[in-house]
């Protein structure tokens, strides 16, 4: 945990943003794999972690703004828990570490909320994403599960998003560490990959190394020679000379902060000429995007710039044609880049996505309402502010099924050179990604430099085996 003053200050800042009612914080429950006592690795709810810092299951908390009370609800360990899990700090001790003075048994939360409902006190809650919390909320507040999302408190959501979006100094230390540890692991993978290995051997090294940091992986590892599959979690392919490995993975620190990096490198020692050409296009899109990062700049414009750089580069290679601005405005580049250039990061790899992309990445004046393929997957569009942490991660992904579909529909034939594209049908995908903090004057990359140009990557691969 951070020092208790951090949590006291965070809660005080939140209280000043909401006038009345009860703010309800739902901790997460253990999630059983196959029976109750055999649970998946526990992950606390990020908003709960942010305001209370206590990383254990079966907790709830309220800030009663009308009564000016903050109460943690949870149960102390019984003798059976101690026998099986060992003596740990008591909940009372943990609550003191979080700057709290009042702890009540978990079942008292039910009573507290039922009384609040009876006296028509407003209970502000955030959109639940776990089934257990949906059931609990529905029971406590008498709201059908299907209506919980729409009945969540917009005031609470907006206050939390505003606060969690601007990273504090203590968070930046953690995010820097997460990115640096992630870079170390990426370098290790780039050094240890060999033709003939299976993807799962490298994925296992990443998971092991992340655990060895004292943290964990921040999201399921994407380690694949089929880099065109955006979230490819299959690790059963053998690495063959001539292919590329796309590694999108990151460390979550013990305090819950994420790193999110991607590198693409040749299975052999060198990129082919074709791979190098497209890599350089992706790297230019990355560089153009990162050079724009500064307070006041809309990330939507960063994204569109990176799309135009990609489209121009692909035109130079002969895969696209026509006017680049028109092609991007029409969405034709999405044949090659089907997602957004980046997203907010923090306690979640896609920070606060549970609270709603509209509130995290957009504003009332910039609604997330496009249905355009590609653009609809941009999680962040709004103007950047000092203290935001985000990713820059352009890529080129050549998806055979998408070629066939668009070609059959004669989509964008004025912008896409389908004949040339056929030669690249099995190219796979390339992505490069780093994490950035928005500063008063621009941005700074988090973590440490990790080989990114084709020369740098090939230099690492030259030493690899
Ligand atoms: N790194 C995985 C993602 O951003 O979706």
TrEMBL record:
Its EC number is 3.4.11.9. GO terms for biological process: proteolysis. Residues 2-134 form the Aminopeptidase P N-terminal domain. GO terms for cellular component: cytosol. GO terms for molecular function: manganese ion binding; metalloaminopeptidase activity. InterPro entries: Aminopep_P_N, Creatin/AminoP/Spt16_N, Creatinase/aminopeptidase-like, Pept_M24, X-Pro_dipept-like. SUPFAM superfamilies: Creatinase/aminopeptidase, Creatinase/prolidase N-terminal domain. Belongs to the peptidase M24B family. This is Xaa-Pro aminopeptidase. It comes from Pedobacter kyungheensis. The lineage of its organism: Bacteria, Pseudomonadati, Bacteroidota, Sphingobacteriia, Sphingobacteriales.
